[in-house]
TrEMBL record:
This is DUF7670 domain-containing protein. InterPro entries: DUF7670. Keywords: Membrane, Transmembrane, Transmembrane helix. Residues 3-120 form the DUF7670 domain. Pfam families: DUF7670. The chain crosses the membrane at residues 12-32, 38-60, 67-85, 91-116.
């Protein structure tokens, strides 16, 4: 039973982060309706995908080192809230913050739990 819990705890943040990164990349496709020329569209698409690309790098590193994923995704959620609150406050911004940064906080927390559990089992074996 313990082994199944460990496997699910291992895979949950990784799968959730892949889904989250794909969601962020999907939201960048709105640049195609902007009426831009080819190079402007390429630049806009790259700029809109920067957060997803950064989180993809964090995910690749955190596949082996969970602490990087924990800190990286929690920082990404905090950065999103800070950037969102630079605008004048509107109530719909609260739902945006919960949807985007909430998922980032959840994934980061799951990576940290995995890291703590892995570290705890390594200390027991020594």
């Amino acid at each position: 039973m313990e082994n199944k819990i460990s496997k699910s705890l291992y895979w949950t943040p990784r799968i959730l982060s892949i889904i989250f990164i794909c969601f962020l990349a999907l939201m960048s496709l709105d640049v195609f309706g902007s009426g831009l020329n080819f190079w402007q569209t390429v630049v806009a698409l790259f700029m809109h995908n920067l957060p997803a690309l950064v989180l993809l790098v964090v995910l690749i590193i955190s596949w082996k080192h969970e602490i990087v994923g924990g800190v990286g995704f929690i920082l990404a959620g905090l950065v999103y809230i800070v950037l969102l609150m630079r605008n004048q406050f509107e109530w719909y911004l609260l739902s945006w913050a919960i949807q985007i940064s909430g998922v980032a906080f959840l994934v980061g927390t799951l990576f940290l739990v995995t890291w703590f559990k892995k570290r705890k089992t390594e200390c027991r074996s020594n």
